[in-house]
Amino acid sequence: MSLGDTGLTVPLAQGARYFNYYWLRDNCPSSFNPETRERSFDIFHLEAAPRARAAHLEADTLVIDWDGEEHVTRMPVAWLETYAEGGRRPDPADLPRKAWFGDHYPDVARFTHAQLISDKVARQAWLEAMLVEGISVVGEMPDTDAALTELVQLMGQVRPTFFGLYFDVRTHINPTNTAYTASALELHTDTPAEEHAPGVQFLHMRANSVEGGRNLFGDGVAAANDFRALDPEGFRLLAETDIPFYCEHDSYDMRSYQRIIELDQHGEVAGLTISQHMLDLVDLPQELLDRWYPAFCRFGRLLQDDKYVMRFTLNAGECIVFDNHRIVHGRAAYTAESGDRYLRGTYADRAEMRSTYRALVCEGRFKA
Ligand SMILES: [Fe+2]
C-alpha cells in the first residue's frame, strides 16, 4: 500500500493498482442512501481535495482514514478489482449477439401471452432472446388492444413515435372488387427519420385471412458481418458515414442523420438503420458518392439474399417482437381475392428492455 498526493496504490489479485482519492471518497459505501439507492454524498462541497491520512487492507476491505475530515471509508476490495482497469462496469444485458439466417423460422424463440404474464422465468428467457437474437414470436394473444399494451409493459413502456402511440394497418378486401394488389414493402427498419428511432417493434396480427403477403424478416447483424468480410472498405463507409433520412408531409418535416451500419462499444455490429423509402437526397460530396453508393447497393442486395431472409405468414393471434435497430422487415407483394388483414403495432425502448432484463437476472449493487 502506498499513499501518494492524488491517490493510493493497493495490492490486488491482478497486481498493484492506482486509485484516485476523489473516486475513493465519492464512492465510499456510506455515500449512498440504501433506501433511495442514490448517492447522497456531495463531493462539490468538500473543504479541500480528498487525501488519505492512512490506509490499510483488512481481509476483503480497504480501510481509508481521511485527512482533514472525520471520516473512515471501508471499501470492498471486490469493487476495486472491478474498476481497477478503467473499463465499463460489467453489464449482464451486454450479451453477445447470435446472428441468424433465412432458415431460422423454426427456431425463433416462442412464448405465449399468458406464459409471459405469469412466469418470470419465461419473461427472462424472452428478454434474453430479444438481446441475443433480436426477434421472438408471442402466440395466443387475446384479440384485444389491451393485450398488446400488456405485452409491451412486461419490458417497458409503450414508446410513441411522432405518429403516436400505436399504429393500425387494415386491409379489408371486398371480394366483389377487382383484384386488389398490395405492393411489396422493401426490407427496412422503422422511422429512421427520428433522432432516436424506437428500439423494439411489436406487430400484433389481429386478423389475417388474405392469401399471400408473406412477412419477411432478416438479421441485419448476420448480413453486416458477412459484408464486413466481403467488402471491408464498403463496410467502413456504411458504418462511419452519417446519412440523411426524412419523413415529410403537410404538417411535419422530420429529419435525422443515421449510419446504415451501427456498431456497439466493442466495435461489433449492433444493427442497422435502413429504409429506401425514407432515405433523403444523400447530401455527401458527389465524389464521395462514387464510393458510398456502390457500397450501399452492394449491401442492400446482400441483405435481400435468400441466405438472410425468413419468409413466413404471421398468423392471427401472433405478435412478432423485434429489435428495430437490427432486424429488417418487409412484406411480399400480394394479390388477394378475399379476406381481411389487420395488424396493430407499437414500440418500446431498448434501454428499458435491458433495464428490465438486468433487474430480473441480477441483484444490482444495493440488494442484500
Ligand atoms: Fe415497417
From TrEMBL:
Q: Which GO terms describe its molecular function?
A: dioxygenase activity
Q: Which residues form the TauD/TfdA-like domain?
A: 122-347
Keywords of the record:
Dioxygenase, Iron, Metal-binding, Oxidoreductase
Q: Which InterPro entries match?
A: AlphaKG_dependent_hydroxylases (IPR050411), GBBH-like_N_sf (IPR038492), TauD-like_sf (IPR042098), TauD/TfdA-like (IPR003819)
Tell me which SUPFAM superfamilies the record gives: Clavaminate synthase-like (SSF51197)
What are its cofactors?
Answer: L-ascorbate; Fe(2+)
Residue stretches in coiled coil: none
Q: Does the keyword Isomerase apply?
A: no
Q: Which Gene3D superfamilies match?
A: 3.30.2020.30, Clavaminate synthase-like (3.60.130.10)
Entry's family note: Belongs to the gamma-BBH/TMLD family.
What is the protein named? TauD/TfdA family dioxygenase
Q: Specify the taxonomic lineage.
A: Bacteria, Pseudomonadati, Pseudomonadota, Alphaproteobacteria, Rhodobacterales
